[in-house]
Amino acid sequence: MAEYRIKLMAFNSAAVIAIGIIASIVTSTIVASKAYSSKFANAEIAQRSIVVKGKSTKRVRSDRGQWWITVKGSGLTIQSAHETLTKGMKRVDSFLSENGFSNYEITRGAISTTVYYDRDEEGNKTRDVVDYELSQHISVSTEDVDKVAATAGEVTDLLKDGIFVIGGSPAYTYSGVSDVKVEILADAAANARTRAEEVTSKAGGYVSAIKDIRQGVIQITTPNSTRVSSYGINDTSTIMKDISVVVTVEFGIAGS
């Protein structure tokens, strides 16, 4: 009987130890599982993000206008062609002066010459000169963009005076593009964050730090234009113009 009790006690002790070991293993497994689940959840949260686009546009007024005029003179001799050109240049100079342009706003280019030859019955050029044509370019550059706009449409009235003149389209530019670029980039990024917050707040989350940001090219267009180009646009046809940019921003998302 004593031997039986000893064996029973030994068995019970072994069973208790085994149960303890099993319980310890189970507890460790649960703790490890929870730790892994928590780590996985945190990693999953860390990887959550949203990508949105933000846009900003600023309207500016051009502060410089440029305009080109071509004056031509022709004649049967080079001398007569030059006389005609000289007369035309003097008349254009007077026209510009009458409209308020000063000499420092005007640049005169070199004279170019074109010689036209007669052709025979087969259409081949001969040595006989039928006309000399001389041309000279005038460039106007001024900060008074309104003066350019008002005058550009009137220069061709000189044709009535027998002056062979060609007026080009004015080009209007804005010198503060670099400063505007910094401003609209910041505004576009803020616009992107606002959009991201509107989306994530409805899902119970919130926007955290910026993970990535990519800037689009600057577009300088006529007011209210919908034109875009992957290379950028630099429209010079109007005094007023819109400078815009689009940024693509990836934000981290936190919360539930």
Salient structural properties:
3 domains; Translation Initiation Factor IF3; 38% strand; disordered N terminus; Alpha-Beta Plaits; 256 residues
Structure description:
The protein is an alpha+beta fold and 256 residues long. It has three domains: 47 residues; 94 residues, Protein of unknown function (DUF541), domain 1 (Translation Initiation Factor IF3, 2-Layer Sandwich), CATH 3.30.110.170; 110 residues, Protein of unknown function (DUF541), domain 2 (Alpha-Beta Plaits). 39% of the residues lie in helices and 38% in strands. It is built from four helices and ten strands, in the order H-E-E-H-E-E-H-E-E-H-E-E-E-E. Strands 1, 7, 8, 9 and 10 form a five-stranded mixed beta sheet that branches. Strands 2, 3, 4, 5 and 6 form a five-stranded antiparallel beta sheet that branches. The longest helix is centred in the N-terminal third of the chain and has 46 residues. The radius of gyration is 41 Å and the shape is elongated.
Give a quick precis of the structure.
The protein has helices spanning 2-47, 78-98, 145-152, 177-201, and strands spanning 49-61, 64-75, 106-119, 125-142, 164-167, 171-173, 205-215, 219-221, 233-234, 240-255.
